Amino acid sequence: DLLTDRWYALLVTTKYIGGAVTARDHAGDPGARPPVASVPAARQRVALEFIARAGFGEAAYRFRPELLSRLGPDRWTHWGASPSAGGRVDFPLHDWAMTQQASLLGQLLDPAVLSRIRDAELRAQPGEPVLGIPELFATLTDAIWTETAAARGKEPTRNIGSVRRDLQRLHLNTLVRMVVSPAPGMPEDARAIARVTLTDLGLRLDRALEAHRTPVDGYTKAHLVDSRERIAQALTAPMLQITSSGR
Q: What pTM was computed for the model?
């Protein structure tokens, strides 16, 4: 219940990114508001930072082992329900984390959201701050790949936990699909920025593998090497262009 409540709060927060406020004031009324007004960039950045920390941060799905050991079934059977109907009696934290984080990432990188972000830039007055697609991609990448900060000279590469590895693969696969087989309606700017993001991430992983001062565990090393290889293959793969009939 607590995980679901937190996920829903994060899901609602995604509406600020590329969001707009609508009004139905009559033209000519005193103080009439415009029909469409973008959510201020400062508020969008606060929302994005909250999602990055609470939804994709290192501590998002980190719990004490003692707590996880206590998450057993209630053994309460009624109306044909079985405590082990799902095939497991332990709490599947990996499955929950992947499902919830995938929904958040999918919402933020949805073609409609990315299109609204671009449209909001056109509505902005000269000099008015905006939250653009490059900033969105960079913020997500920094939050999701925090353990590889050694690539930027900040700290040694750290071991990456299993929940975090799943999230990083999810993010990587999302960018790869955006580059190789973009969804209908995906802005070309978003596809181009995804490609640049993959290129920068590949360099970051190269430096992370070379710069770690202490040995990382086998999981982490295999994950970093595999991710780097996936990026290399994606950048050389032909793009499958899907033409939308609606345009």
A: 0.88
